[in-house]
């Protein structure tokens, strides 16, 4: 059921864009390569952001959760 839900959401998310892309002259201008390059740059940026947050974010030694990390 989970896999069905995933494919349903993916089809509803990307299906209209794929149909629009193939039905219009967009597919003639090498936009697929541009989209792939953009996705790679986005993933690299997200990875750098994650590494920076994991490196420089202050972690307290207490068991309580403080979303704002205000010092006592």
Automatic annotation (TrEMBL):
Pfam family, one: DUF2053
Cellular-component GO terms for this entry: endoplasmic reticulum membrane; plasma membrane
Cell compartment(s), UniProt: Cell membrane; Endoplasmic reticulum membrane
Keywords linked to the UniProt accession: Cell membrane, Endoplasmic reticulum, Membrane, Transmembrane, Transmembrane helix
Protein name: BOS complex subunit TMEM147
UniProt family annotation: Belongs to the TMEM147 family.
Primary localization class, coarse: membrane
């Amino acid at each position: 059921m989970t896999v069905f839900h995933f494919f349903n959401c993916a089809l509803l998310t990307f299906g209209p864009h794929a149909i629009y892309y193939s039905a219009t002259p967009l597919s003639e201008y090498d936009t697929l390569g541009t989209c792939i390059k953009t996705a790679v740059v986005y993933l690299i940026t997200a990875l750098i952001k994650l590494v920076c947050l994991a490196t420089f974010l202050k972690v307290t030694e207490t068991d309580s959760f403080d979303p704002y990390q205000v010092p006592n």
